[in-house]
Design brief:
It is a single chain. By secondary structure, the protein is mainly alpha-helical. The chain is 68% helix and 6% strand. The chain has twelve helices and four strands, in the order H-H-E-H-H-E-H-E-H-E-H-H-H-H-H-H. Strands 2-3-1-4 form a four-stranded antiparallel sheet. Helix 2 runs antiparallel to helix 7 and helix 9 runs antiparallel to helix 12.
Length: 306
């Protein structure tokens, strides 16, 4: 009988404050969708780092005959065979370097350039003798790039030492920046949702002040009086959480599998799978259920004297 009464009161409260309940549902859904999106973005960045940092190389570019004119580091002329042998021997002695060390010839460099930039108008102006020989070094720990850079930068025959990871870092910094913006927007939406929840509880408590007064007179406990209001907020939050889960699932499908189909267009990127999304849904639902209920409980202590 008591459970039936509480459920009936929940229905009455949701109908009486339909507009505010709708606002709570929308704000909770948007804030939790941003929360889940921020978690997924962080996991995507971490996945991409693990995938790409394992593949990037440190490139040691060697001087060619054309560099002597323009680059002070190559003022002594093109790299000699003895210098190349010494550089390779020193690389193979380093514990941080994975073996074997790959040497890219001028012809290989020119071929790779044509594969990547063959459609560019400038590609026809580049000749093989303008390309540079290089050692492509894969590190056991990508964080130890400076070990190689310090050992070979400025050495005779070496034009420059480049870490491909620095190119990826710019992309990851951009994605992390977008993640931070999403978190700030999420916090703003959560604050708005909490304000709406508190106001909804106040209006609901005020509109039923006569019923609650009668319940106090007949000896109803404080929790029994508060339960319908808390459950109303929890139901609205749960609906918002379900909508947020639908947004996350739909967003993952639209962006990666269907619609934009980024998985096909950007097949070099290792996108997060469905398992990453599904593991976040219980957390989103739990927050959607508990956050409004707790907010309503604290609001009731002030606005509903029991």
């Amino acid at each position: 009988m008591r459970a039936q009464f509480v459920l009936s009161e929940i229905g009455v409260g949701l109908r009486r404050n339909l507009t505010m309940t709708f606002a709570v549902v929308v704000s909770v859904a948007l804030s939790l969708a941003l929360f889940g999106g921020a978690l997924l973005m962080r996991e995507q960045v971490s996945t991409m780092k693990d995938y790409w940092y394992d593949k990037v190389n440190v490139s040691i570019f060697l001087c060619n005959k054309n560099d002597a004119k323009d680059m002070p580091k190559c003022a002594k002329g093109a790299v000699t065979a003895e210098q190349k042998d010494q550089i390779k021997a020193d690389l193979e002695k380093m514990e941080a370097v994975q073996k074997p060390v790959h040497f890219e010839t001028v012809d290989e460099a020119y071929k790779h350039y044509q594969e990547q930039f063959g459609d560019s108008p400038m590609a026809g102006n580049i000749t093989p003798d303008q390309m540079q020989e290089s050692f492509r070094v894969k590190l056991k720990d990508p964080q130890k790039y400076k070990v190689v850079a310090t050992a070979f930068a400025g050495r005779d025959g070496v034009q420059s030492v480049q870490d491909q990871r620095s190119i990826l870092d710019n992309l990851f910094e951009l994605m992390n920046g977008m993640n931070v913006v999403a978190i700030y927007v999420m916090i703003l939406m959560l604050v708005i949702a909490l304000i709406l929840i508190v106001n909804t509880v106040r209006v609901s408590a005020f509109s039923r002040r006569r019923e609650t007064g009668i319940m106090r007179l007949v000896g109803a406990s404080g929790f029994y009086i508060q339960a319908p209001f808390i459950m109303e907020a929890a139901v609205a939050g749960l609906i918002g959480g379900l909508l947020a889960c639908a947004m996350l699932l739909g967003g993952r499908y639209f962006l990666i599998d269907g619609g934009l189909a980024l998985q096909e267009k950007l097949n070099l990127i290792n996108f997060i799978g469905w398992d990453a999304v599904l593991t976040k849904l219980p957390l989103v639902l739990a927050i959607g259920l508990l956050m409004p209920a707790v907010a309503a409980l604290f609001a009731l202590r002030k606005y509903l004297k029991v």
